[in-house]
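Team,

Forwarding the record for the chain on the shared tracking sheet. I've put the sequence and predicted structure together so nobody has to dig through attachments.
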Amino acid sequence: MANRSKLKPFAFILIILLLGGLAAGNYFMLTRAPFGNCIGSQLFINGADLYGFKPSPSACLNYGYYFIGAPLAIGLLLLLTLPFLVAGREIAQEARPQPAAEPKKVAPPPPPKPTTDAAVQLLGLFQREGRLIDFLREDIQPYDDTQVGAAVRTIHQTCRQVLAEHLTLEPVLKGNEGDEVTIPKDFDPSAVRLTGNVSGEPPFQGTLRHAGWRAAQVKLPAQPSGQDPKIVAPAEVEIP
């Protein structure tokens, strides 16, 4: 924005009054001659005016004071009152093409908070097909190896089928157990766990003890509407 000066309305009235006063004073001085005659008649012989008028040096000096001082006084008065006579007005700058603003980088949305619904649902599938939870919670110490082995075979078969049907698993690191592998600098500590004599900075050379597992795909059936997602296995009641 830029400022443009503009006279206030009463400033014009004041200027007109001052100029009118100066003009009236000049007219009075020229017609009334209050200080005496300064300009003699045109017929002047041997220092005497034929019409009886003789110029006065002091009158000429007084008239000079007036005709020079009066305009200066009015000009000085206007100069002193100028800040009160002028009003500032803002005008809009000419439209200029603005450089295109760089688009702000938008931070990616935070990952959704993990829920236990999928884990409970998968655990429910293991329980429904292989009674896995019942087996894990049962105390098997009183049973001998033959009895435990027969039960485990059935549980292993059904739970393995559930795993293959609903989860697609792939190894985190390619290779067989016992192979030599190189762990790069930018490795993910949540995907690779280092054991043994770990010191210094990566890359590391080591022996693969377990390839790990990554869930490449999860295929869980949709839960019925209104079902409590915390229920791993419903209670069973037989009605006679």
